[in-house]
């Protein structure tokens, strides 16, 4: 029997984002399953020294977000006669004609493409019938506690808004193919300015949003707290009253899964299929958010399927 050697292609934290955390947890989970695993990080993808890693791998699992780079990488790996898996982390078909075309070519070349929601599954299966729907959720084997100064800020903030302190996250300011702000942070800030009895914690490790507000001389209301340095967002979810995911596009949000797993109410836009237990709303009806928050019911922890077992079985099937 061949020794199972898995090569991941993507980014590890930092930066701390949903995809990088998924890759870190995948790497940790693969090791616990007894598989040999290595990684080529996106920033060093073109280094000549990576050839050795490629040659040693039985399966290469690609987590790249840029469609053209994804297609070229998959093409090269296939020329090395490697088994290739792709995880499409976003909403497939939402990146504009040219990028969607590169995505389609990459998925067609892959041995097995993975998607994170039903709409993406419908699209990618037209290019590759072996496409599988697998959640992005992997239970963390290690949760890094918040640094003391951040924890103090969060604790003090939550005390000011008992039962009404919500959280949201965005690593940096990003826009979709239509030029809309993906994470709707600016819209949420405006909305919470109208709701002084409720607090919003914004996790944005890059600090780009806070810098934007400072450069534009915008005064942030006291019921909004920015955390603008690296930290484990799961800690913030646990301390909050609920999670708000107001994105214009999405894959299978890790923060949504974590909040459900921890028994926190989740309020998410209906841009993609959301897991059971989410309260969904249309982004253009942001004004209704206060009513949704006021009418929230007590949430219970919801078991989430851990992707590690399914992914390790997938790797095994490609090697044997």
Descriptive account of the structure:
The longest helix has 15 residues, at 18-32. The chain has helices spanning 18-32, 50-56, 67-79, 97-109, 118-124, 148-160, 185-193, 208-215, 233-239, 254-261, 289-294, 307-319; strands at residues 5-10, 36-41, 59-62, 83-87, 112-115, 132-133, 165-169, 199-203, 224-227, 242-245, 266-269, 278-281. The chain folds into two domains: 5-139 and 306-319, Rossmann fold (3-Layer(aba) Sandwich), CATH 3.40.50.2000; 148-294, Rossmann fold (3-Layer(aba) Sandwich), CATH 3.40.50. Helix 3 (67-79) packs parallel to helix 4. The model has no long low-confidence stretch (mean pLDDT 94). By secondary structure, it is an alpha/beta fold. It has a six-stranded parallel β-sheet, sandwiched between helices. It has a six-stranded parallel β-sheet with strand order 9-8-7-10-11-12, with helices on both faces.
Q: Which key terms come to mind for this protein?
A:
12 helices; 6-stranded parallel β-sheet; Rossmann fold; globular; single chain
Topology:
Layout: E1 5-10, H1 18-32, E2 36-41, H2 50-56, E3 59-62, H3 67-79, E4 83-87, H4 97-109, E5 112-115, H5 118-124, E6 132-133, H6 148-160, E7 165-169, H7 185-193, E8 199-203, H8 208-215, E9 224-227, H9 233-239, E10 242-245, H10 254-261, E11 266-269, E12 278-281, H11 289-294, H12 307-319
Parallel strand pairs: 1-2, 1-3, 3-4, 4-5, 5-6, 7-8, 7-10, 8-9, 10-11, 11-12
Helix pairs in contact: 3-4
